[in-house]
Amino acid sequence: MTNSSWTPGVVPGRLPAEAYALNFADLHPPLDPHEAAVAADRCYFCHDAPCITACPTSIDIPLFIRQISTGTPEAAARTIFEQNILGGMCARVCPTETLCEEACVREAAEGKPVEIGRLQRYATDTLMKAGVHPFTRGPATGKRVAVVGAGPAGLSCAHRLAMLGHDVTIVEAKEKPGGLNEYGIASYKTVEGFAQAEVAWLMQIGGIELRNGVALGRDVTLDELADSYDAVFLGIGLPGAYDIAGVAGNGIGSAVEFIRTLRQSTDLSGLPIGRNVVVIGGGMTAIDAAVQSRLLGAENVAVVYRRGRERMAASPYEQELAASKGVRLVFNAQPVAAHHGADGALEAVEFAYVADTPEGLRETGETIRLPADQVHVAIGQWLEPLGDALADVELDGTKLAVFEGGKVAPFGNVWAGGDCAAGGEDLTVTAVAEGRDAAMSIHAALSAA
User: Fold this and answer.
1) Is residue 318 located within the same domain as residue 440?
2) What residues contact 92, with CB distance under 8 A and at least 6 apart?
3) For the chain, which ranges sit under pLDDT 50?
4) What is the distance between the alpha carbons of residues 238 and 386, in angstroms, rounded to a whole number?
5) What are the residues whose beta carbons fall under 8 Å from the beta carbon of 310, sequence distance 6 or more?
6) Which residue in 24, 106, 286, 416 has the most C-beta neighbors within 10 A?
7) Residue 79 vs residues 46, 67, 310: alpha-carbon distances, Å
8) What is the CATH number of the domain that holds 346?
9) What's this model's pTM, rounded to 2 decimal places?
10) Closest Cα partner for 3 from 378, 377, 380?
11) Are 342 and 219 in contact (CB under 8 A)?
């Protein structure tokens, strides 16, 4: 499902050349040392810190903030990286407003939490810019582990295994490592090629071989990997995007593909964008696609979600960000048809208003038709493109079923984590935690063998 660039209303260069750099500048500029000291001074250093519990990777947040306040950001960075080796990216993209910062005592008392995310970025950037890698490999174990997918889960797993002395081979289908950090996050959240810089920094641990352009099912099978390596970790993400019945044709495509194309572009002025853009969905991907459509010059952008505001997966902060950029949010409406002109060009999308009842969504009889020359669909992703490659793996709904330690049935030496695994939230920080924890489970299994 791809957006058709020939549609008359979808054209490149809607903005002056100088506007693109300004629009896609860093969403949250980094703190300078003085600003970091002031921000750190607001922390109460709670002994039972609720922010730690709220962090999926369980970073000791009061400790790293205290280390910043005492002028040792490098030590703070190590505290972060011990739990979350992708702490630099997570500092940029984590929905801290619904995790650690929402749990912050300052938030409860004053409505303004400690800026944990920006402080984490200050610490991690300080150490990474110094070119220092804080960890070394343990004694070689002679064990070999294959990691499928160089996204957050795979990278986290690979790094922890390498630290523990195992030899790791990462196979990645795409031309670059990073997964969603490289291909699926709004450009203004991670500027200046940070995703690739972070991977290069992570690889300094040694003991990790990266093979790009190697796809599971096409170039290698799971059986082959399980037979050739002592253990396998699947961090394959969710490569397939859902379509909408009745909403297809020219001008209608995947929001994931739109963001991927944008992220890999070296000239944003050359990206075709519609005058009237509609995004269907209610998650972070929908918001990222909508905001970036506005930043590329779309005049009217609407995000349409079939349930109420309170049910959106996108956080209130992300919703407010979209609104501040001029994105219209439409709730309780589900798509029923796309309308194209005689020449095949997209003209509008029709939605039916719905009520969210105990029996499910029910149409009210009212409809709305939104003008559109470009539609980005962001209603979720799944494993469908890898169906044959995973034919022997037990599923839990549309994801991989995982058991104690992240093990995958029926294989005895295969683990999984991240978005492809059932049970967790589809967040970068959750993927990092699951990759790290699976590595520890793999290490325990290999040590006992």
Assistant:
1) no
2) 28, 117, 121, 189, 190, 194
3) 1-5
4) 9
5) none
6) 416
7) 17, 9, 35
8) 3.50.50.60
9) 0.95
10) 377
11) no
